Amino acid sequence: MLSIVKSSYGLILFALLFSGVELFVWFYLGEVGLLASLIEQDQSRVSALIIAIYVLATLHFLFACYSTSQQFIDIGLSPAQDSRSQVLKQFFQRVDQIGKDQHKLQELIEVLDIRLRSTYAFGFILADLMLKLGILGTVIGFIIMLGSLTDLNSVDITVMQNLLAEMSGGMKVALFTTLTGILAGIILNVKYNLVDWAVDHLLNEIRESLACR
Questions:
Q1: For residue 187, which of 14, 2, 17, 22 has the smallest C-alpha distance?
Q2: Domain chopping of the chain, boundaries
Q3: DSSP conformation class of 148
Q4: Which of 40, 78, 100, 180 suits a disulfide with 47, CB 3.0-4.6 Å?
């Protein structure tokens, strides 16, 4: 896996492959009607919101993978080349300015670490948001389910049938939103941890390149 990440655009190619599998799963869910059923039966529309945010987060994840892949390539470029990313260009310029001061060099690496991770750190917030939205949908579902009990004025069979239908609708909202939120949160966490792991190795590569100077 590490060799794939270090290869030219290996991380973004792996991310695109992963996204291709995801796209096939989405297509299959749409074909069998599960996706439409999920959105239509969720009265709160929280599931649709989760899916929309998840799609945007996936695009952000792909951009983060592309940027990190480009930075792996930038490490091997000579100082005279201008195709380095702005963050790495500034870093290596300041490394040249401070010379061999190890204390300042360590501080520069720490600043670089923060800057590199800040490009995708928001993704972890989105992953946590997915779980929170799933819990919100659960609460809304139970409110809908319990709210239907206020219409119970008699034990007439028709009233009971309507009551059970409304309660089952509330339960569907609770379960569907919980399931959607948990799955979206788990997958986003996996994605952004992959980028985080790649950045760890990117920083190791930078430290090695500086040690060889």
A1: 22
A2: 2-211
A3: G
A4: 180
- Encoding tokens for residue 18? 């992963």
The pTM for the full model equals 0.82
pLDDT tens digits for 51-81? 899 999 999 999 999 988 888 887 766 555 5
Contacts of 60 (CB under 8 A, 6+ apart): 120, 122, 123, 126
pLDDT digits (tens, 9 = 90+) for 93-145: 787 777 777 788 888 888 888 888 888 888 899 999 998 888 888 888 777 77
List, in order, residues 6 or more apart from 207 with CB less than 8 Å away: 109
Which residues are within 8 A (CB) of 162 and not within 5 positions of it... i.e. 6 or more apart?
151
Q: How far apart are CA 53 and CA 187, in angstroms?
A: 13
CA atoms of 84 and 193, how far apart (whole Å)? 24
C-alpha separations of 90 from 8, 83, 164 in Å: 22, 12, 65
Contact 141, 174 (CB under 8 A): yes
Helix 34-41, helix 10-31: angle, nearest 10: 80
7: left (phi over 0), alpha (psi -120 to 50) or beta: beta
CA 40 – CA 51 distance, rounded (Å) = 13
How crowded is residue 199: how many other Cβ atoms within 10 Å of its Cβ?
20
